[in-house]
Amino acid sequence: MMHYRAIWISDVHLGTSGCQANYLLDFLKHNEADKFYLVGDIIDGWRLKKSFYWPQAHNDVVQKLLRKARKGAEVIYVPGNHDESARQFFGLSFGDVKVVEECIHTTLDGKKLWVTHGDLFDGVMQYAKWLAYVGDTLYSFILYVNRYFNMLRVKMGLQYWSLSQYLKHQVKNAVSYIADFEHIMAREARLRGCDGVVCGHIHKAEIREIDGLLYCNDGDWVESLSALVETQTGELKLIYWTHIKGDPVEAPELSFQTAVASILKEAAL
């Protein structure tokens, strides 16, 4: 069991078939932290509005996070665009999980890192949201194919590999979009008097310096299977959880009523 000063995860997309909940649940079982930052798109409200999909593993992830908060870890939730409905609860807590618009994390060596999902600085999200919805539909189809592709790889004894991430990084416009986003986030961090930024949104895990600012993206749990951590010695690094240490269990899908009841029960304990 590893114990970190902080762990950042984002873009889990619970409620979608592309979510790798079993991998995330395994990660949470083997890693602890003083602070957990949930950096947006934890639950995919866009997809759940179209159809309800909620396997037991997705419920287990929510319950695991609530349990960590109850046992003393500080769990901070910064909603993103796919879970934007949670933004109406800024300043409130749900089962000891604090919901905030953005926050500042101070590293062991005193660096101030601005923590935000990143969608509010995405031109497509702000000025052509319809295009984002179209892109999300196409992206969901690729993730659907990716799911069965990796089921075959697991049976062959191979580790997880993201077909969707590979395709995205081969497209010139996508690469340009990612680079622009990274520079915008670094600029915004500077305007806030911070030494760097931690964000998600674009599903590309990264730690690098941009114009003297530290840019960190914790990746996602549909493609990268990654988290950002700060170790007890103050080192920031990315962890990729492409192997499940325990044997994954195929759990049944829950009804809406059963899922909500179990989450509310965990939050109330």
Automatic annotation (TrEMBL):
Matching SUPFAM superfamilies: Metallo-dependent phosphatases
Transmembrane segments: none
Domain Calcineurin-like phosphoesterase: 6-204
The UniProt record lists the keyword Hydrolase: yes
Gene Ontology annotations of biological process type: lipid A biosynthetic process
Keywords, in A-Z order: Cell inner membrane, Cell membrane, Hydrolase, Manganese, Membrane, Metal-binding
Gene3D superfamilies: 3.60.21.10
One function term, GO molecular function aspect: metal ion binding
Pfam families: Metallophos (PF00149)
Domain of life: Bacteria
InterPro entries assigned to the protein according to its UniProt record, in alphabetical order: Calcineurin-like_PHP, LpxH-like, Metallo-depent_PP-like
Record-level GO cellular component terms: membrane
Name this polypeptide is given: UDP-2,3-diacylglucosamine hydrolase
Organism: Polynucleobacter campilacus
